Amino acid sequence: MKKLFKDYILPIIIFLVGYGILEGLRQAGILNPYYTQILVFIGINTILTIGLNLINGFNGQFSLGHAGFMAIGAYVSAYLTAKLHMPSFALALILGGLAAAFMGVVIGLPTLRLKGDYLAIATLGFGEIIRVCILNIKEVGAATGLIGIPKYTDLFNVLLITALVIIIARNFINSTHGRACISIREDEIAAEAMGINTTKYKVIAFAMGAFFAGVAGALFAHYLMYINPSSFTFMKSVEILVMVTLGGLGSITGSVVAAILLTILSEVLRAVGELRMIIYSALLIVLMLYRPQGLLGTNELSLDLLKKWFKKPNKKVRGDQSGVAEG
Description:
Elements: H1 2-27, H2 33-58, H3 66-82, H4 89-111, H5 116-135, H6 155-174, H7 176-186, H8 188-193, H9 198-224, H10 234-247, H11 252-268, H12 275-290, H13 303-310
């Protein structure tokens, strides 16, 4: 019962309370449309970051094609609702995620036998292939982009899906399948020696990460109501990778914290124009120099971790031991 409360009931309570507070602020006029948009982008970036962290952080692979999966989910779901007039946004969302997951399996089976830089180059090539293909498909607008997408995405469904993604990812990592993925990250040869099918679990992690990216792309498309291939370039993949690295490779709560910080930071730095990329890059360089493992490393944010951080070290006082002379 305690585990059920911790894994499912408590996150639902936190979500409902958080959304209630935000809705109250919106009704009071404090949360204007601009701040609402930032919160929506925070949720979408959180989903993207958790998806990539499953691949890079927990499974130990190095993917640079996450924007390609996001593009697949965005265009498939947008085509279903804008062109085929599918009335169910939930179904379009799931189909967009499944299309991205299918491509994750198709790409994953041949490429996940590669390691390190070779895998990064292969996934980077996949992301660019997807973007170039979209540029030449007239049914989805080609280079002009796809317009007329209904605005189904709002703050409620973004926060709800983000909460579900966090719960699913957390339970997966704590399951036997998640432990198998972590063992591959730590030592792939030892994992194979213990009988773990490394290719199978690599593909599972890759497909899950791609599914989350596809769902995030669908939310993105149905919020802006317009998408074009320039939204899913190599730099988008790098942006997601930076969030994963900043939060900590192997930390779900680290992904959430990094998505919040970098989304807000990029908005704050818009006021300085072209200088924002220099400031943004400099801050990341400083962080990597002094905290290369990321903000949380492989830890999860919890009350126990906070107590450990803020606990004052015990000072041991060494007293002089003096003997008592007997007369």
